[in-house]
Design goal:
This protein is 40% helix and 14% strand. A 7-stranded mixed sheet has the order 1-3-4-2-5-6-7, sandwiched between helices. It is built from 8 helices and 7 strands; from the N terminus they run E-E-H-E-E-H-E-H-E-H-H-E-H-H-H. The protein is of the alpha/beta class and 268 residues long.
C-alpha cells in the first residue's frame, strides 16, 4: 500500500524535493510548467519543442511520467520559438493528475516543491501550459477536476499566464476539431479564458503549433509573477492548507464516500 503523502518530505524521504533538475541554468531562467491529465501528450509536446526524444512517451492510459522534471531548451535549439531569443527556458514536465503511479496530492506537492526550488535559484515561473486530449468523446470527471485544480492553483490574476492546448487533433476531422474547440472555449475552458487564458489546437502542423503555444506563454512573461499556490504554500508550509490542496481533499473525500456507498464498507 502506498504511504500517505507528507508535504514536508520528498518521495525519497529527505527534506528536499525529489524532482529532477538536470541542467546548470543561469539566473532569470523562465520555467513554463506543462500540466494536464494523464495521456494528454505532455511528454510528446516537450519532445517536439526540444527536437529530440528526451521524455518517455506512453501510448496507453498508463502513466509514463511519475516525477516532476525540469528540462532545458538548449541555446542550440533556441530557433524553435520566435520569442526565446537570448532567454533561457526550462520546460517543467509533470505527472498527470489521475496518475496510475503517483497519488494526486503527491503530484501537487512535487509541482509546488519544484516551483519553490526554481524560485530559490532565481528562476521565474514562466506560465502554465495546460494540455488536454481533444480526441476523447467526452470530458471525463478526472479532466474536469484537473481544470478546476489549475484554476485554483493559478488564482484569478495567475490565469492570464495560462495557455491551453488541445492535443491529438490528428485523430479527428477538421470539422470535429473546430466543433470541439468551440465547446471547450464556451464551456470547460470558459472560466480560464474569461480571465485571460489563451487556447490553441495542436492540429494541422503539430510542431509549428507547439512552437506557437510556447511562444504565447513566453510572450505573457512578467518578472516576479507568482501563482496563488506559491503564495499560499509559503504562508502555510503545507500543500494541504492551500486553496488547491483543500479542493483536492474535497475531491478525495467525495470519491471515498462514493466508494463506500457502492461497496458498503470502508476500505480507506
Amino acid at each position: 500500500m502506498a504511504m500517505p503523502y507528507d508535504p514536508t518530505t520528498s518521495t525519497n524521504g529527505s527534506n528536499r524535493s525529489s524532482w529532477v533538475y538536470d541542467y546548470d541554468t543561469p539566473i532569470s531562467t523562465q520555467s513554463p510548467c506543462v500540466i494536464g491529465p494523464t495521456g494528454s501528450g505532455k511528454s510528446t509536446f516537450i519532445n517536439m519543442i526540444l527536437g529530440q526524444e528526451r521524455m518517455k512517451v506512453g501510448h496507453e492510459q498508463e502513466s509514463c511520467t511519475s516525477v516532476v522534471s525540469a528540462i532545458p531548451v538548449l541555446p542550440s535549439k533556441a530557433s524553435v520559438c520566435n520569442r526565446i531569443g537570448n532567454r533561457k527556458v526550462l520546460l517543467v514536465d509533470t505527472p498527470g493528475f489521475d496518475n496510475t503511479e503517483v497519488d494526486d496530492m503527491k503530484v501537487l506537492g512535487e509541482i509546488t516543491n519544484c516551483l519553490e526550488d526554481l524560485y530559490r535559484h532565481h528562476h521565474t515561473m514562466g506560465g502554465i501550459i495546460y494540455l488536454q486530449d481533444i480526441s476523447l468523446d467526452r470530458v471525463s470527471a478526472s479532466t474536469m477536476m484537473c481544470i478546476d485544480l489549475v484554476n485554483k492553483a493559478c488564482g484569478i490574476l495567475g490565469l492570464r499566464h495560462v495557455v491551453l492546448g488541445a492535443t491529438k487533433c490528428n485523430r479527428l476531422s477538421a470539422a470535429e476539431v473546430e466543433n470541439r474547440m468551440i465547446q471547450l472555449k464556451g464551456v470547460h475552458w470558459k472560466g480560464m479564458m474569461d480571465m485571460g487564458a489563451q487556447a490553441f489546437p495542436l492540429a494541422y502542423d503539430p510542431l509549428s503549433d507547439a512552437q506557437s503555444l510556447l511562444d504565447a506563454v513566453l510572450e505573457r512573461f512578467e518578472p516576479g509573477v507568482l501563482l496563488d499556490i506559491q503564495r499560499e504554500f509559503r504562508r502555510t508550509k503545507d500543500i494541504r492548507n492551500t486553496s488547491v490542496g483543500k479542493r483536492l481533499i474535497q475531491y478525495i473525500s467525495r470519491w471515498k464516500r462514493a466508494f463506500q456507498r457502492i461497496f458498503q464498507f470502508d476500505f480507506f
